[in-house]
Structures are given as structure tokens and as C-alpha cells.
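# step 3/5: fold
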Amino acid sequence: MQKFSNTQGKEQKVPPKKAAMYVRMSTDHQKYSTENQADAIRAYADRYHIEIIKTYTDSGKSGLSIDGRDALKQLIDDVQSGVTDFSIILVLDITRWGRFQDADESAYYEYICRRAGIDVRYVAEQFENDGSLSATVIKSMKRAMAGEYSRELSVKVFAGQCRLIELGYRQGGPAGYGLRRVLIDERGEQKAELKRGEHKSLQTDRVILMPGPEEEIETVRWIYSSFCDGMPESKIAALLNQRGVITDLGRAWTRGTVHEVLTNEKYIGNNIFNRTSFKLKKRHVVNTPDMWVRKEKAFQPVIEPSYFYVVQQIILERSYRFSNEEMLEKLRQLHDRQGWLSGVVINEAEDMPSSSAYQHRFGSLIRAYQLIGFTPAHDYRYIEINRRLRQLHGDIVKDTIAKIEQLGGKVRIEPQTELLVINEELKCSLVICRCQQTQAAAYRWKVHLDTGLLPHITIAIRMDARNEKPMDYYLLPALDIENPRLRLAESNGLALDAYRFDDLEVFFQLTERIAIEEVA
């Protein structure tokens, strides 16, 4: 407490001003870690007799927009709802508030706070945020510079990625059926094969593609041979499924997955990049072929190039029997049936030209969409993933029930809550956790526990990076887990990872019925 003397000479204590601090870390530099930001802000608070009573933290979040920055959203909501008991918001500098591409957006969020009577202070800036002309001019310039920094960084990163592609190195994404990702060092020597979900740990290491197991290579070649002999993709997929062959994602084959094998140039060793782009967190854009970055003969091929291009010609010729108007009418009818469109939806539909045929005929899928009056509002892969996860949830429930009954247990599903009631003793909730990637390239999984339904245990199924198949399982007992909303990282410490298992065998052991004689 500060002290001052009144007219009678008595000392009285002045209560400190109350403040909240907002800290954000992206991937800019270690000096901007949330802990270091907090230390600098606390030092400022001590110097100016300010008491910090609340902290809002966005870790590993991009400053390009407010999307995904839950802490900043909560801060703005608290300010607008009038539930705050602080009069100051302390931020390290302009860039931590955000690198918004529109400087007015940054100003708008600050204005919301100021309108509510809350002052925003940038503790490491050389100006006082007092509304003066000089402060306003400097602040506007710094906001514009923060946005420009992100634009310049985006250009530099893209240029670096293009250079690595042209050198023959793989930039992200799964290898695909019949191929494997292999790690090499700076001398070009192979180090190890990367499994799904694994990433390189050294900056000097690179990733290339190599042919996979011989049986997968033979399957890829059979797919090409069968297609050239006139067999359609749907028939090829059906035969593969009859033989028990599964995709690299552990799933059944479909027309679309066969089409992907038939049209991807990586099977002839070409390295392709920039087919789509999502720069500065703007709209996903499907780029035309002239914008692709290509390195031919970057990897060891699985298919002869001449064979590959024969297949591409067959695929294109399938659409030649349709006029432009007929192709667009088919696309329009598909949109009317589905309600939305994507390359996957087109490739999975029977009696339709492929998505690559639409790209070839109209220049791009986006152009074909525009001609039928369809404008994608957002990334529809999210909807496809949701549909796949709903199906997966049902499959896992069926498999779980079958396994418990095989062990002698009894299971029923409560119709209203969909909880699994096991042996009339144990209530279980089964939830699938979508994998999400942060701007810092880290993976996160959100777990929402149905505490209102009072399950005894929740099985949280973490999906892999592509949300294609389960990665592991968390068995979360209600007695031990108090927070109904968990945000899991790749590593969560013993407090949570003690409940992590690679499969559900431990859970099945809990449900197994054992005869009394066996127990004795």
C-alpha cells in the first residue's frame, strides 16, 4: 500500500489499482514465452502500485485473428458483460495483443475495453497509451508493422518450403498407401522410418518418401493394371475389401481412396506442393496447376511414369462424353443431394466425372462451384471428419459391447443418455476426441465429460493427427476427474497420463465376470 498524509498529518494507505494481465505466446521467439511476459508485467505492476488479480493466457496461439484465442475472447466477454473487478489490462506490447491483418480490428478490441472504463496498457512500449495524438500515431504505426511482419514472415516461410520441395524433401502429410516417410540427416543418409504421427526432432533432418512393403507395392500396381483393363474404381475397392486389404489408415477402401492412388503423382516419384493454401489464416484456396510447386523424380517411383499418364488420360476421357453443361448439371444435382461439395464427395459419387476431371475442364474446382452458384463458406473437411467420427463412434460402441459380452458380461444402452450400463453396476460414457493442430504445430484434444449424466467412467478416445483412427484411450473415473472440460496435449504429466492406455484391454478386464470358484 502507498501512504500519504492528510491535513492532520496522519498517514493513510491508498489501495492499489486492480488489473488483469493478458499474455500470449505464438512461435516468435523464446523471449516472448508467457512466463517471461508475466514477469515483465508484474515488475511494471509493482512499480506503479498495481495489483494483478486475474490472468488471461493464450499459449501457442497465433495473433493473426481472434479465432482460437479463447483467453482473449473470454477477456472481451468479461469486459462487455461488466463482471470485471479490475480497471486496467496489462499487456507486454502491441504484438502480444495481436498481429491482426486489419489494424482496425486490434483497435476495436481495445476500444471495447476503453468504452467499459478499462484502460489497456502496453508495459514494454515506449509510449503511454493515454489517447494523446503522439500515442495514437505511434500505436497505429506499430499495429500496421505487426501485421506486416506476419505477411513478410508468411512469404519467407513459403519461399523456404518451396526451396525444400525443389530439393526433393517432403513437406508434411501422410506418406500414403504403398509409401513410407523416411528421415535423413544433413548428409542425406537414412536414419529411420517415421511412423504415423511421428515428426523429425532435429532442424537439420529432412523427410523423403520411399516405397513401402512389397505387398503394398504389388497392390498399387494391381490397382493401376486393373483400372487400365477397364475396371472402375468402385469395383477395385470392392475386390480389395473382399480380400481383406485395408488402406494405410486401417480402413476399408472406397471409390475415393482408389482414385487418390490413381491420380497422385507421388507414386511416380514427383514432389508436389501448394495444391491448396491457407495463408495468414484466411480462406482455404484450391490453387490451379500453374501455381503448384513441382520437383520431378524426387523419390523412388512405385509406378512407371508412362503407366501413370495412361491412367490420367483414361480418367480425363471419361468426362469427354459429357459436355460442359452436362458436367455442371451432374455437379448441381450432387450438390442438391448432399447440400455441399468437396473433392471427396465428388470422387465418392457414382456415375460422376472425378474431381480432377472438373479441375481439368474448368481450371479448378472452385471455378466449377462458382458456375453452379455454390460458394464454399468454410473448410468442408470438418464436416467430412464429423461424419466419419460419428460412424466410428457407433463402430466402437458395437465392438465394445461385443467384447464385454464375449467375456460373459451384459451391456445395455440407456436410450436417453446413450450411456453403456455394464452388468447393471457400471455406467460408462464413450467420447471421441478430435485432434486439432495449433499454430505452433502442436496437437490438442478437447474432452467434454458428461458430468450431468453421472457416468462412473468416461472412455476418451484420442484420434490421430488426421482424425482417421484411434491413437490411444483415456479411462477417466468420475471420482478422480473434477474438471468437466479437459484439454489434452501430446504429453500431460502423470496426473492425467496415468489413465492413458494403448487399447481397451484394461477396461475389458474391469468388466469381465469371474466365477466364484475361480476367485477363490
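# step 4/5: annotate
The chain is about 40% helix and 20% strand.
# step 5/5: archive (pending)
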